[in-house]
Write a structure and sequence with these properties.
The chain has about 220 residues and is mostly helical. About 65% of the residues lie in helices and about 0% in strands. Helix 6 packs antiparallel against helix 10. The longest helix is centred in the C-terminal third of the chain and has 26 residues.
């Protein structure tokens, strides 16, 4: 995804990217319930492993019925998807809010660092829960599948924001490739941070380093 293009190469005009509509009260309540279930599942998985935790354990731990649990999630491993995706959602939202005209690489780096450096509170606690999950993940292929799926979803969500910054179509290869590279870089950064013992704040610095290394060759200097 370069900001100067080969004049001989035809490009499609960028599609307008509409802002997402605000969530309804029902949607906000649903999201809150999903997040509560996700936090409970993450705690139990970190303590007992996914094999040692049942859907019934998770439902009981957060005070919902098993029927409610299965209304939101098909399997116990799926329950942690909202938690694993939380920092990625912040990343996409921050990138989408970047001022027009900002170089794409600068926007990717700044938003990635900010997403992994939340202020003390629920977001920081969720990031620490994610760390515990990632430490348990090598022993559970189903959890790894969820982790890779949320990154694939993030990759798809990055495209419209990158398209807006570059003036390209979201389906242009010069948008899709950096979105895929950036999502992979973020995944590797968080995985590397999770298995080490640095303070949580270093996740943001590591994300900046890895995103720059992987995406940098594809984009002009910041």
């Amino acid at each position: 995804m370069s900001e100067s293009h080969d004049p001989a190469r035809p490009t499609r005009p960028a599609r307008p990217v509409p802002a997402p509509p605000p969530l309804s009260l029902t949607e906000r309540r649903k999201a809150a319930t999903q997040q509560e279930i996700a936090l409970t599942a993450a705690r139990l998985f970190a303590e007992h492993g996914a094999e040692g935790t049942t859907a019934e354990d998770i439902a009981r731990g957060c005070g919902v019925s098993l029927r409610t649990f299965y209304r939101y999630f098909r399997a116990k491993e799926d329950a942690v998807a909202p938690l694993l995706a939380e920092a990625l959602r912040r990343w996409v939202a921050l990138l989408a809010a970047t001022a027009p005209g900002t170089p794409a690489l600068t926007a990717l780096l700044d938003s990635a660092r900010a997403a992994l450096a939340p202020a003390p509170g629920p977001a920081a606690e969720s990031l620490e829960r994610t760390r515990g999950l990632l430490r348990a993940m090598p022993r559970d292929p189903a959890l790894r599948d969820v982790w890779h799926r949320v990154h694939h979803d993030a990759e798809t969500a990055l495209r419209p924001a990158l398209a807006r910054l570059t003036g390209l179509d979201p389906e242009d290869l010069d948008v899709r490739l950096p979105a895929a590279a950036a999502s992979t870089a973020m995944r590797l950064a968080v995985e590397t941070w999770a298995v080490g013992d640095p303070p949580p704040a270093t996740a943001a610095a590591l994300a900046g380093t890895v995103v720059r290394r992987l995406v940098g060759p594809l984009l002009p200097p910041a």
